[in-house]
Please model this.
Amino acid sequence: MAKQVKTPVAPRLRFPEFREADTWARMSLSKLLRERKQRNRDLKYGPEDVLSVSGDHGCVNQIELLGRSYAGVSVKEYHVVETGDLVYTKSPLKKNPYGVIKENKGKPGIVSTLYAVYHVTELAHPAYLDHYFSGDYNLNSYLQPIVRKGAKNDMKVNNAAVLSGEVLAPKVPEQQKIADCLTSLDRVIAVQRRKLAALIDYKRGLIRQLFPREGETLPRLRFPEFRDASGWEPTTLGALADFHSGSTPSKANPAFWNGAIPWASAKDMKQLFLDDAEDHISTLAVYDGAKLVPSGALLMLTRGMTLLKDVPICVLRREMSFNQDVKALLPKGGTEGLFLALLLLGNKERLLRMVDIAGHGTGKLNTDELKALELSTPKPAEQRRIADCLVSLDTRIAAESEKLDAFKTHKRSLMQQLFPSPEETL
Model:
C-alpha cells in the first residue's frame, strides 16, 4: 500500500501580509511546547496563589474564581505556572471529555500535581495555542487518540504523552497576528458580557426596591407620580389569582401527542414570557381532560428538583396546557397578570423558604400555603407602571444578550476561517 501523503494546507482566510507566505505545517506539539517541571519547593507561592483551569474562564486565580483556595495541606510539590505557560487539566468536562488546555494570561501561580504545565518554544506563540485549543473540535480531536480513561472516568495520560500529537501552525509572526485578532475580539465579548451582567444585577436590585419588603406595605422606591398615593393594600395570593392544576396525557395513546397545543413543563420555564413549549398535545388530549389556560395566565413550578434552587414563574403569550408539576394562576379582581408575575419574582426568597423537600430530594410548594402568602398591591395604574418599567428593562437585557450571542457567533465563524480543520491534512 502506498504511503499516504499529507497535503500542505492554509486557512480559508489569511491576513494580507501572509497570503504569499508558506502553507501551514503539521507538526508535533512537542516542537511547540516543553513540559515545565518546576516545583514550588521554595514555597515562593502560597495557597492564595493556586490557579484553577476551566473551559469557560481559562486559567485564573482560584480564590477570584471560586471565592476560596482549595489547596492541600502543603503546596510544596505544586507545579509552578509562569505567565504565558499552558496548563492541561485532566478533568473531563461535558463539551471536552478529555480535559482542556488553557494559557495562563494572568500572574504566575501554582497548580496541583493533577495538572500538567508547559512553556512555549521559539516556534510557538502561547496565545495562538490557547485559541487553537479553545475550539472544541481541535481540542477533542487532538486529545482523544492520546488520552485513555480509567474506570472512574479519570484521565490515563502522562505529561510527556500529551505533547505526542500533531497540530497545525504557521510561523510565529502569523501565529501572533491570529492571536492578537482573536484576543481583541475576546475583549469585546468580555465587555459585552459584563454589560449584560450589570443590567441583570440592576434589574434584581430594582425589583427589590419596587416591591415592599416582607411585612411592609410600601416599597422603598416609587415612581414620582405615585409618591403621594396611598399605601399598597395587604392581600393574599389566593385573593389575587385562581389556581389550576395541570396533568400529563397518557403516553400510551400517541393520538394525544404531537398536536398544535403547547404543553409546558419545567424545562420550558426559563424566561418571563412563554411563547411556546418543547412538547405539544392534540385537541383529543384536551377532550380527555388536559387543562388549557389562556394567554396572560401565569405558570408557577410547584414540584421538582428545580425548586431546590429556583421557583420559575412565567407569563403565557398564548393558550397552553401544562403538566402536573406546574400550577396555573389566573389573575382576578382587576389584578395585572404581568404585575403579579413580577410581584412573585420580587418575593422569590420567600417562595424558596416555603419549598418543602419531598421524596427523592425533590422540592414541593404547598398550594394552600401559596394561597395564604401575604402580599401587598397598589392600584392598577401603579401596577402597570411597574410592569412597563421592568418589561422595558427585560427588552434591553434581551437585546444585549442577542448582541453577546452575535459576537460569539462571529468569533466561531472567524476561527473556522482562520484555522484549517485538522482533518483537511489527513
Remarks:
- The first strand starts at residue 25 and ends at 28.
- The chain has three domains: 24-169, 172-226+379-426, 233-377.
- The two ends are 16 Å apart (CA to CA).
- The domain at 24-169 is CATH 3.90.220.20 (Adenine-n6-DNA-methyltransferase TaqI; Chain A, domain 2).
